[in-house]
Design goal:
mainly alpha, 2 domains, three-stranded antiparallel β-sheet, two-stranded parallel ribbon, 19 helices, 3% strand
Length: 372
């Protein structure tokens, strides 16, 4: 593999999503013009309402990992060495490796060309391939934005798809370099979602991740979104069934119990965004599919939060997920307890689902109102 500052050059090969991603004699180009637009789309540019304090909260840094905090800051400042060393030292713990790859990928948004230059020196390095692939996925979704499809221009969609196809190739090389690593498969789920791959392809990717790490939190998180109606068009029953099965199979104390909360949040979003319902119909569906799940969510929380459980890399993320889910079903006290355990580290999903200027403001407002 050869990489250059303005262009990712990969030899033509068959993509898992269809025909060869690269035409003979041509490369997928991500011009430098894309990067300033990415930098301008940060969530912190939005103004927060008066009376809601977000000072001390962190957005999309949902981990309790001081080493990752230090590497994140270094990468944001343009120094990738600390991140590369940290990822290389994380190979023995898949969940920690996945969260570190995610955090470093977020930190490297706008710096992927520097990762490409590093790959020139060590082509085939599985850690750099994973990191670059994850970064490209984040850069692609920044270009697309979270807007509905009709609000995204054709040019943005074209750029989004081009970057995702490049990410797919990079991750394929990562898989070849480290066949037993589940992390590239976990990231690949988001490529499949963005490229609207077939459900057979999505199933194969999830199955491959599970074969390598059956308890992978990031793999299950990606699967929830692959099944979510907003991306898949599938019936809501499929994602609910997945959540129920995951909870039933999860060991007591496992953060995988919080997948029940992830699913509940996607159901909540689906109900609230269903424009075909009358007010009466929406209320009935809300009661049936959300409010009536309160006891099930509290049971999932109890199965997870058993005394003496071992901390997991996914805990901070899972606490935020469960806080949101418990809020939606009216379990205010439990939601507040989960919110306190986030350490003020909030994720755009699901807190960005609330109609507020940004996820941090949504969380802060919910806490101020005691999750009412």
């Amino acid at each position: 593999m050869c990489v250059s500052r303005s262009t990712v050059v990969l030899h033509p090969r068959q993509s898992r999503f269809g025909a060869s991603l690269l035409h003979e004699g041509a490369n997928l180009v991500r011009t430098a013009a894309i990067r300033p637009s990415i930098a301008r789309m940060g969530i912190f540019s939005r103004k927060q309402p008066a009376g809601v304090a977000t000072a001390g909260l962190r957005l999309d840094q949902a981990w309790a990992d001081p080493e990752l905090d230090a590497a994140y800051a270094a990468v944001r400042g343009g120094d990738l060495s600390t991140g590369a060393e940290l990822l290389k030292a994380s190979s023995q713990n898949t969940d920690r490796r996945s969260f570190r790859a995610m955090g470093l990928g977020k930190a490297a948004i706008g710096h992927s060309e520097q990762l490409e230059l590093r790959l020139e020196a060590v082509p085939g390095d599985p850690d750099l391939l994973l990191w670059l692939g994850q970064t490209l996925v984040f850069e692609a979704w920044e270009v697309r934005t979270g807007a509905s499809a009709e609000q995204v221009t054709e040019q943005r969609f074209a750029t989004f798809h081009d970057i995702l196809r490049t990410a797919a190739e990079v991750l394929d090389y990562g898989i070849a370099a480290a066949p037993d690593d589940a992390a590239p498969w976990e990231v690949l789920q988001w490529v499949a979602i963005g490229l609207q791959a077939s459900m057979d392809d999505k199933n194969d990717i999830f199955r491959s991740a599970m074969e390598r790490h059956p308890a992978g939190y990031q793999a299950h998180s990606g699967r929830v979104h692959a099944l979510a109606p907003k991306w898949s068009g599938l019936d809501i029953a499929q994602i609910v069934r997945f959540g129920d099965q995951t909870l039933a199979n999860a060991q007591p104390g496992s953060a995988l119990c919080a997948v029940a909360g992830m699913v509940a949040n996607e159901v909540w979003l689906d109900v609230l965004s269903d424009g075909e319902l009358t007010k009466l119909q929406r209320g009935a569906r809300y009661t049936r599919e959300i409010s009536n799940r309160k006891d099930a969510l509290l049971a999932a929380r109890a199965k997870w939060q058993v005394p003496g459980r071992e901390p997991e890399a996914a805990d901070i993320s899972a606490h935020g997920t469960m806080a949101f889910a418990l809020k939606t079903v009216g379990a205010k006290a439990a939601a507040m307890e989960q919110a306190a355990l986030t350490q003020g580290r909030i994720e755009s999903v699901p807190w960005g689902y609330i109609n507020a200027p940004d996820a941090l403001t949504a969380f802060a407002a919910a806490v101020t109102k005691q999750m009412a």
